[in-house]
Amino acid sequence: xxxxxxxxxxxxxxxxxxxxxxxxxxxxxxxxxxxxxxxxxxxxxxxxxxxxxxxxxxxxxxxxxxxxxxxxxxxxxxxxxxxxxxxxxxxxxxxxxxxxxxxxxxxxxxxxxxxxxxxxxxxxxxxxxxxxxxxxxxxxxxxxxxxxxxxxxxxxxxxxxxxxxxxxxxxxxxxxxxxxxxxxxxxxxxxxxxxxxxxxxxxxxxxxxxxxxxxxxxxxxxxxxxxxxxxxxxxxxxxxxxxxxxxxxxxxxxxxxxxxxxxxxxxxxxxxxxxxxxxxxxxxxxxxxxxxxxxxxxxxxxxxxxxxxxxxxxxxxxxxxxxxxxxxxxxxxxxxxxxxxxxxxxxxxxxxxxxxxxxxx
Amino acid sequence: xxxxxxxxxxxxxxxxxxxxxxxxxxxxxxxxxxxxxxxxxxxxxxxxxxxxxxxxxxxxxxxxxxxxxxxxxxxxxxxxxxxxxxxxxxxxxxxxxxxxxxxxxxxxxxxxxxxxxxxxxxxxxxxxxxxxxxxxxxxxxxxxxxxxxxxxxxxxxxxxxxxxxxxxxxxxxxxxxxxxxxxxxxxxxxxxxxxxxxxxxxxxxxxxxxxxxxxxxxxxxxxxxxxxxxxxxxxxxxxxxxxxxxxxxxxxxxxxxxxxxxxxxxxxxxxxxxxxxxxxxxxxxxxxxxxxxxxxxxxxxxxxxxxxxxxxxxxxxxxxxxxxxxxxxxxxxxxxxxxxxxxxxxxxxxxxxxxxxxxxxxxxxxxxxxxxxxxxxxxxxxxxxxxxxxxxxxxxxxxxxxxxxxxxxxxxxxxxxxxxxxxxxxxxxxxxxxxxxxxxxxxxxxxxxxxxxxxxxxxxxxxxxxxxxxxxxxxxxxxxxxxxxxxxxxxxxxxxxxxxxxxxxxxxxxxxxxxxxxxxxxxxxxxxxxxxxxxxxxxxxxxxxxxxxxxxxxxxxxxxxxxxxxxxxxxxxxxxxxxxxxxxxxxxxxxxxxxxxxxxxxxxxxxxxxxxxxxxxxxxxxxxxxxxxxxxxxxxxxxxxxxxxxxxxxxxxxxxxxxxxxxxxxxxxxxxxxxxxxxxxxxxxxxxxxxxxxxxxxxxxxxxxxxxxxxxxxxxxxxxxxxxxxxxxxxxxxxxxxxxxxxxxxxxxxxxxxxxxxxxxxxxxxxxxxxxxxxxxxxxxxxxxxxxxxxxxxxxxxxxxxxxxxxxxxxxxxxxxx
Lengths: 361, 818
What we know:
B: 60% helix
């Protein structure tokens, strides 16, 4: 298809894999699905299907993917919750791509999303000219999913206003939409479900009501579970980024990536990596995505004002900015971390410690 | 019809036994399905003799075990008479196949015996292995990584190969949910065979397996018939336990051969053993000869039955010794007895919901139903018919816990582990902890205190220089350790009395009194450990985990120090470190730091290595330094507590060189200099600096002038002065320029201001003695050029009527918005 779009939907990017899985299906396929739950799992977590190698889309936490798929088998709606940068939307897109072969029935939730966008809206010119009719109605992605027995996605559900969230409650429990203007009620066909994603720690999100939460099976997606996994993600993304951003600096060395990931993981988890010592976690999010932008920033600093190699001085500036945001408590937590943990780590960390200490005065 | 089918089945079962071979039923310890089907199997096989895997010398306890007065979980235990106490432990729950087999035998009047190596040999082999390992360690001179044991290897491989990534779940899905006795019997045999194959590395397909198989050539792993308890370190070593498995199987064959010789026909014998051993037992191997039998090492041991608990079962989650979810497994057992396959799943989810509701969390019935559906769907993904524990737990987390395990963690622990404790009829038990208690009593020459009348005992913890042996020099210290351990365990034999001399760190006063309750308390303590020391360590650990505040953990550290148990202390210290990270107030930190500091300073008498306390104290101190200035912005009420904290922290900082004194000084300067904090505390900080010689008279003078300048509300100035005088009065009195500045300040005030200042200054000087007031008067006299004695007379003399009137006028003083 069009090759100059920035990003293709998942079902087109991985079309070959999906076709192979559908062709080699051995297990029963639920109504409305194009492959069995087992094949969906293979599509997401990687494996083989006949001759075709299936690349893993979501690394680690296979069990969570199993729970997510099983939830959709039971026709319950699925809510993926997690901190920013934990691949919620990514997982939701790939789940719908594998199950329906179409990940484009999506509502992108914002503070400005209205109830009509959840249910249906009207082509007002036609509405005024001819009165309410099926032709004048514009169905929402959820409406279409119900008609077709497919899965709809709601992104960033917690950003929508509470009234708008409430519109989902009766849809999810009764599985039908009534259109009083036309005097009809549209029942959902088998296979209909909703995958929603929500942020936990961002500012500007609305608390979800207990009633709505009860209609979802909730899966919490955690941060990468090991230092190695996180370093892998950071490294791959850095390689892609430095190509597209023209940063004029060398890629960060292994040691730099390790240091940043270590500090982030420790401050995020509130415990040292060896698990021996607890420490004060900071209030900021410190996601993997932030580690990536911190390193990109350090590279930009080194490329523009230094000799192209990230120094501890560049790194310290980035760390200070990422860790100590507006909250003064973070400054104290950072100082405690520097004194109690980093200072005792020996010579490899010494110069970074000194730079950070200098900056955190 | 049914009867005939059963008979046919029974014939089939009988025919299966090879000629001259007994029947063997492979099980896994603590397996509800095994427990249920073993009864069916026995019904069909109709034996005369039931042999059960377990130390042969425990056979004498079978009568007691089968008695109706026993309520499982219970355990049979052998323990060495010598120190250090080593134990062999076989726990039984109601769903243990062995336990059900014993009950069956009793109901059907059939003979029942254990058939494994006697416990003495078990202990002997273990000891030998431990020695070998130690020797190896010494040879290598340096601590090296212990090799992965064959058992660990087999189970790791099993985890990898099973689709569930977890062998417990794999076992539950394939075996506990097996539909009938044949399925279980065959499945267990197959499982045992695969384990043996896995152990010798010839599972085809994976390169890794082949490789490690080559490396492990000629080895054989201990599998399903694992020895439940025993030294962890000892077991890890490979080689030894493979040999041990061969020895055990040879011995079991010997027992079978002996039974046959005594006249029981082999077809009338059923051996109930771990699935792993079935093949070893039925194979071609020869029974152990008399010569081989005599050569085995032995360690003298005593045997007993003891009550056990589900909690302890769940703690030892290694194979055989326990399982992670005893209460859930009991539900499985009940489900089998009721013939309702999904009984456990339903009960489990309902129990979780009930617990959640009881603790104020809303759980609707709809959520339970959804959790049930999700668990079934998860099971379906793995080809299972029924959900396993893992499916159920994950479903509960998703549907009831909003996706986070922590929301249901307590309910899960309560439902999976449960609180059941076994019980024994009186007099059956003579546990290791009892004999440990009596042995210690003898060693410490405390036997004469074991009487119903209360007796006093005073201890002097210092080294006695008059005696010869090291042991008697520290006898009283050892006694103190022992008695403190009893105190920690809540055994009412010893009670500590308040010591009369103040600060006597080396004297202790105890009152000892023996009661039957004490004996019961000791038997109960066996659930915490095999010896008094182990149990005390467990109790301290439990207390550490249970305390939420850092002051509580500091108390555990003190207790651990009193008990002479450095490991417990270290554990508590690391827990303290963890808890201290969460938000705590400066006052609490100061209190904890004070306690730690006193353990550091006075704990010397107990000969304990207190080094682990050093880093935690410095961390607490750093934290206090960071927080203190911020917390000093408070009202008068809080200021009193913080003043106390400041004083404690200062004392701590003075007493330990390793603390960052420089930082502390900076903090004090900051508090002294800042104008937005509680002035009383600023004054106190200045006083401490003054006392420590960090602030000279000139700086003080400036400070006084700034604090007491016109325009500053009088109560703030006076509050500052009150803080300043909280420490050393003489240091203030000796500084003449302080009083000059005070005098200058008073002069600048107008009448109304003066009245206000007077009220507060009077309060500030209330703590001064008349002697001190005299000296102040002298100072002021000098400044005002008045005769000192005259001034003193005026100051200390009785108040005249006119003055009284003026003062009572002050009582009605309008404090405005103060």
